[in-house]
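To close the chapter, one final illustration. This time we ask the reader to focus less on the individual chains and more on the assembly as a whole: which components sit near each other, and how the overall shape emerges from the parts.
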Amino acid sequence: MIRNYIILLSIFLIPVIFTIFTISNILVSPITYALWLTIVVGIFTTAVYISNYLKSSEIKAPLVEEFKAYKVAALVVSYNEDPSTIKETLFSVREALDSLGDLFLLDDSTDIEKVRENEDFCNKNNIHYVHRENRRGYKAGAINDFLKKFGKNYDLIAVFDSDQRPVKSFFFDLLPFFNDPEIAFVQVPQAYTEIYSRLALGATYQQMPFHNIVMSGRDVTGSAFILGSGFIARISALEKANYFDENIVTEDLATSLKLHSLGYKSIYVNYPGIWYGEPPQTVDAYMIQQGRWSLGSFQAFGRILKTRINTRAFLDYLAGVLYWLKEGPLTIVELLAPIIFINFQLFIFKVDPVIFSLAYYPVFLFSIILFVYSMRERSYGISGFLYHQFVEFLMMPPVTLSFIAWISGRKRPFRVTPKGKEIRISRWIILYIIIEIILIISIIKGIFWYLSSSELALKYSIIVNLSWIFYFLFINTGTFIIFLERRK
Amino acid sequence: MIDSDIFKYIEELERVNEELARLSLKKKELSDRIIESSRKNDIIPINSLVEELGNNENRIIDLKRRKEEILKNIKSGLKSIETLMDNFNTFCNYNGIISVTGLPGTGKLDMIFRFINYCSSRDSVVMVLSDRERIFEMVRKISKRTDIMNVNPVYVEKVSDIKNIDQVARLATRLSKDIMRIIRDKRNPIIVVHRSNDLSLDRIREVSNVLKEEFWRRFIENISPRENNILLIFNCDDVDGECTNLMIFSDYLIRSELSEGGSRFLITKLRL
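The assembled structure is written out below.
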């Protein structure tokens, strides 16, 4: 749609105008542009966040609905996960499902021992076991194969990852929303309850604003999307959407978009419907998860642009992609800009440093204060904010790699988030040590440059750039709290 | 025998509540005027306003004390009138509001289910806010014809966020409209609310009684049980006085207690 392209072009063209007026050196002009783009994207995503925050306190769905018994197929999906975890999840789902339908384990495991153990368990406990030899379409493919084979026997499917367990009243709570035939799916927040590491704690804090503000706001604007687990979907709607999209690593986002473009509605119920959930426990697991999520978002970008949904919902979807752009490649630019300035004495852009500081720092501080304020009733606080920043800085490399893979059209293998509680020092630490060293050297050089310079404007420029380097040094040092956690 | 004093107390309670609501508004108005005068440095009006505010505050304190006394008297005046079963027939044909209160585990829900099962001439709906699995089990076992009305799981949390009278009005109106939408095809329905503690603001300590009563007033006004031929039954766990505000709007009060022979129910007519 033309509207979508106009909005997108505005975001990418405004920095071009700023770049033309502030260009200092043609060699660094791409960085100049990227830096302005970072600012514009930052303002855009903050504006969308504020809007979602204001809407997040509303309840869009009906306050009361009559309970009707739909026939549900509850699916637990697994791929080489620990069988004991799967068993517990199956018990939990079965208890919640009561007499409302049937329970299936869609097991794509390739480990023969695990396949045998899972199958035995299902046979003994009257749970339907479905196993595929090929992993076509991965999780989306497994669900699609199920739908094509058994879908006609049910009204709804509920999907749970093998480490996400629903509360006993899950179906009683959520099925009534399907009385409205336009509702395609109902999603609840994922739960991170098993926190055994600082990384897991950081990932949990990172999820809090997403679940409580972003998704709650998107529920009201009509753009809440499927999170892969802990959702119930109407089978007839999925059929109309041609099932789950198997060409994108995060099939849930693309499928939600398709359903919304078909005129279906979604509901996000921000309540603890999942009582047990495992976050990634290690840096490597987290990197894989964030790499997959970001790649899925980048891959869905083309579809988002072509979709026909209301403007507000489009802005939400667009902000979702731009968030990944900001946390990946644009963070690298933000990091590089002051380093280049200090070490190579190259001006990234020609702007009066005082005016820049007066214009940008209040916006920057405002966004931080607003963010913490928006989470004031959620046990988030300053420590939550800091943990959130540290883990977000950790995802810079995998997100950037996903971005490069998407731009270059290179396929990356689908990798599930590894589970396990053993904490090892990740090899990614080497990159962060290098960053730490570069930042410290830059600070020393910057101080010397400041002391040796006599021009006032230059001194201000050095201070502005040093302040950014100090900021990144603080965040980068914070990542070592996560990297260097002792083995448990 | 009905303790006749109880009606006097209830009438007085309504008067006290009305005056308290008025005084609360006046308090806000006086505070605003004091702030305004202090901005203009008008010393004389400030002194008289402060004095007026003090008198207002003293009256509020007196009224609150009186309200507590009245509530105590109402509670102690609730004597057994008739046995429960004899009243099932009467209540089956009744349109209005019945509050069933008592400590948790005293058999309220069980009695309510037996009652709605007994009234086969009317449709029945249980509005569920908590103990969902238990309610489903009871419908299955005791009253299969009863429909279940599910309250959005986010509702209870959102109620806690309410801070002003506009929000109260909006919530109560929207809730009652949603209920009326669902019951429009039901035959003289009996609506059971389980539990009224979760539906209202009564369990939130930070919220003033004025807002709590306003919620019930709006909600009941919109449902209008008598005009719409509805019997509204509130199941309320009597914990920390959470059922007090509801009693003001109820026609009958059924208090449950555990006695040697099992549950015992004391019925009191609250409105003439």
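The longest strand of chain A covers residues 72-78. The radius of gyration of chain A is 24 Å. With these observations in hand, you are ready for the problems at the end of the chapter.
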